[in-house]
User: What shape does this take?
Amino acid sequence: MMFRLFQAGLLAAMLAGAPLFAQTFGQIEGSVTDSSGATIAGAKVTITNAATGVPREVESNEAGNYSVPFLNPGIYNITAELEGFKTARVDGRQVQVGDVQRVNIVLEVGAVTEVIEVQAGAEMLDTSSTALGTVIDQQRIVELPINGRNYLSLVKLSPNVSAEMGAGGQADGRQGGERANQPLSISGQRQQFNRFTLDGIDNTDSDFNTFVVRPSVEALQEFKVQTGVYSAEYGRATSQINVTTRAGSNEFHGSLFEFLRNDKIQARPWRNAGDKAPFRRNQFGGTVTGPVVRNKFFFMGNYEGLRERVYGFNQTTTADQAMRDGDFSNPALLTIYDPDTIRQTGNNVYTADPFPNQKIPQARFKQPFIKLLEFLPLPNIPGAVTGKDPNNFTRNTPRPVDWDQLTTRFDFSENANSQWFGRYSWGREFVGLGATFPIQDRNVSTRVDQIMLSNTRTFSPTMVNELRLGANIFDNDLKTLNNGVRDVSGELGIPGMPPVAEAAWGSPQIGMSGVAWSPAGANRRKVRSSTAAALLPALRQPEHRGNHVQFGESATDATT
Assistant: This one.
């Protein structure tokens, strides 16, 4: 189990003409001049969010420059006014995540009550920042088909991204679940080198560099895939995925959705000769946004749930009743030799006598072997094992998924010089990992809580402070069937096997190819063995040799 409470961040930016902003904000800057090109100082520049009506006001400095940082992504209207000049207005300027929009304004002589609308198109080249990245906007997030409604699938739309490889690193074996299967290589970096932020706070599991909170696509405004050459506030990684959630507006908006799949419309798996395995997938939820107080206080609430009941198909060979009784006379099986007859016949050459009639006397069985058979199921395919088709056991492996997540956000305009926004995200997940044998089944349970608060305060035309606080609580457990319930290795009583801590109790993974204990979390204890040791672990008392337990010529390594 892992528990982390991290990140209490404070960012204070003193703006004096240089662009500096948090990861998920944007910025509008530019100059104010007259028709002759002379700079104008003291002009009042107002930036108004078109959706909320919330304004931000600054004045152009002695060089005629203005800068409005810490803008939430959205559409903005810009006005500039000064006594003796006509008011200039630029509407519909879009600000995206990490954007630095430059809007230069020209004032003409006239009355302030006269308004000149300026058509200012977006810049084709951003000359205000060296950062490289691709913005995935809300329209693409919501409208493009995404398998599983995972917005990270859209990272593949960015250039310089590879995503068709298997999951790498230790996350799959140590953490499990969806987080461990996000194969994204950005800018040629390893999959574990990505970093995630959400509304400007750290959203990265520091152990495996996977995400902590994955909001519903309905709760997102947009995100930007950063690929390098960005400024210091972006932090630790060569590649970053910076996400911003959706804010409320002066209009109420809502949506409900459900996506359904089931086995009635699914094809039968190609290896499955019997009835189709059950398949149920329901993904449902809704979002509502709107004002609490118009032009002042706004909210967004989102819930999404997933209930999936999917089965895989596994097949293998398991010991039938004859093998359990010591009878290996089936000609499809390998010859079984008596370890008590091993002898040297030459330089590094050994031989042994086979058991008579390929039958091991039950008097030679030891208690650990008999106990081990409890965890090994009998065949469920009739007939003896043959060389052509050795599989005698099949199973529809259960892989249930229960996923619930909630995201709430508020935005509050205290006044033209102070804006607040905060968010709380909650998530609970359970993922079942069915294996070939029921005793091998694992499950991943995860709980996440994330809270953040931001305040942007303008003290003067040249001084702006942004305070941002965030905290993550992330608990992730990867368990086997008997984890914390049953001390199987202690019950087996294998001589030389050290005791196992309760946190590392688990179930043995048993098959013709080996035995292994897979407890949960970082406390992992494994016992590996060869085929012979799996079938005949108690033919003789083991010899203790160094750090492993030796059964005849077959070794069982005990490693921590």
Confidence is low (pLDDT under 50) at residues 1-21, 511-560. The first strand starts at residue 2 and ends at 6. Residues 138-143 form the longest helix (6 residues).
